Amino acid sequence: MYQRLSAVLFPIVTLFFIGTALWGYQEHQEKNRILVKAENQYQRAFHDLSYHMDRLHEELGNTLAVSSNANMHRKGLINMWRLTSEAQSEVNQPPLTLMPFHETEELLANIANFSYKTVLRDWNKQPLTDTEKKTLKTLYERSKEISGDLRKVQDSVINKRLQWMDVEMLLASGKENFDNDIVDGFKLMNKRVAEYGDIDWGPAVTAMNERRVLKKIDGPPITPEEAKKKAAKFLNISDTSSMQVVENGTDTEFTTYSVNVPVGKQASIQLEYTKAGGKLVYFLSSEDVKASKINVDQAVEAGRAFLEKYEYGPMRAISFDSYNHVASIIFARVVNGVTIYPEKVTVRVSMEDAKVLGLSAGDMLQTGITAEVKEPALTVEEVRKNLNPEFKEQDVSLAVIRNDLEEAVLCYEFLGRINGGTYRIFLNADNGFEEKIERLRQADAESSK
Q1: Which of 209, 337, 348, 350 sits CB 3.0–4.6 Å from 358 for a disulfide?
Q2: Domain check: are 186 and 48 in the same one?
Q3: CB atoms within 10 A of CB 316
């Protein structure tokens, strides 16, 4: 009996082990193919990075070699932006994110921003300044050193047949002390860049890198109890006993109070006020909305009426979105008929009963740009000549926007249709330059009427 059983099971077990071995071999082969593919991608990205840094150094030299030809300077800066953008993309492909490489990445980002922002301006009126030429000379020297460091690492990779997969495993291991030519080379490069000191990038890049913060709010400080009273007045309730207040950013210029107001068993309303002046930063209700029964116009009108009630002044709806039966509408301040796009608030409106469920006024509390709006240097007829002849204009008005240089500029805002879509085109009211173009969704176009 045992012999017959063995005769039956032996071939089955044998086939099982053979199958397991084949499966294991195939898995091993597949793993090797994936590793080889990853290694090839890492190697290609690294060698492309080294090549583009060499080309960037050459392009900086070519740009500096031209005496005063604005067109050649502009062409050189365009090539610098392209090469730096490619280098930034390649930096993100090898496992460099695990290395201390942030200083070099920041330098590449600033070079890209500097070249891009400089190219955008009117070169007939604003050619390269002496300060910008000095910056280019500094970048020329810095890029030479970075290219040299990269070539040293490249030589080690080629001559010693180093593998990026080994680097990735070393970095992922968490060990602090290990010897690897690739890691040591990039550490040295990053240290060198950190020691370069400040580079004068000009106001455009400096403004872009500055983090916008809430401006210092004027007014006497309020207490937690006063924050409760403000919340009660805003919500038109009298009982403040169930409210909870938390102070945020204690001992800073932008201290706020968060007020939690329970509503029923599960819902609640959150409000936040600045400690200085008691300005409302936001409020949000967790009320559940089950259906949509009103249209875009009704939701926009409800939001506008809410803003008028709380004395936000004239506002214009510039964007509309809806999710889970709740509309999110962005309103921009209007001053003497001019839309100030950077000064905006977001209002959340229930599409079931037009009840306002939230307000975010942080942008209104940021460093404001509202000032006396100057008269445009050009008439609308003069600026209109710069529009595409196929653009079907529907409306035109004045607006202040932030352009790509982070400057507040007065523009003529043209609303119209072309290529089967609705667009906003902002043309500078002083020189006719096209500052920005936006394609609008149907809901945005309807809310902007």
Answers
A1: 348
A2: yes
A3: 19
CA dist., res. 421 & res. 326, Å (int): 25
369 vs 118, higher pLDDT:
118
What does the alpha-carbon distance between residue 95 and residue 328 come to, in Å, rounded to a whole number?
40
DSSP 241: T
Tokens of 302: 């409800």
Tokens of 144: 């030479």
Detail the DSSP E strand segments found in 381-430.
392-402, 408-418, 421-428
Tens digits of residue pLDDT in 247-282? 887 776 678 889 998 887 777 889 999 888 888 888
Cα maximum dimension of the chain: 107
Phi first, then psi, for residue 143 (nearest 5°) are -65, -30
Instruction: Based on the fold, state whether residues 157 and 267 are members of the same structural domain.
Output: no
* Mean of all residue pLDDT scores within the chain: 80
At residue 403, does pLDDT exceed 50?
yes
Q: For residue 201, tell me if it sits in a domain.
A: yes
The Cα-based distances of 61 to 57, 91, 113, 335 in angstroms read 6, 23, 19, 48
Same domain flag for 264 and 329: yes
> Which pLDDT tens digit goes with each residue over 8-25?
555 665 665 665 655 555
Residues with Cβ within 8 Å of 219's Cβ and at least 6 positions away in sequence, in order, are: 276, 277, 278, 279
Could you tell me the two tokens for 182? Answer: 């690739």
Number of domains into which the chain is organized: 3
User: How many Cα atoms within 13 Å fall on the side-chain side of residue 41?
Assistant: 13
Question: 418 and 350, same structural domain?
Answer: no
Tell me, yes or no, whether 29 and 170 share the same domain. yes
Whether 56 contacts 87, CB under 8 Å = yes
Q: What is the DSSP string of 336-382?
A: TTEEEEEEEEEEEEETTT--EEEEE-HHHHBS-----PPPPSS-HHH
Instruction: Report whether 177 contacts 183 (CB < 8 A).
Output: no
Answer whether 342's CB lies under 8 Å from 322's CB.
no
Give CA–CA dist 370/410, Å, rounded.
Answer: 11
Predicted local distance difference test score (pLDDT) of residue 138 = 87
Q: Give DSSP secondary structure letters for 105-143.
A: HHHHHHHHHHHHHHHHS-TTT----HHHHHHHHHHHHHH
Yes or no: say if 285 and 358 are a contact pair by the CB < 8 Å rule.
yes
What pLDDT, on the 0 to 100 scale, is given for residue 45?
75
Q: Are residues 132 and 267 in the same domain?
A: no
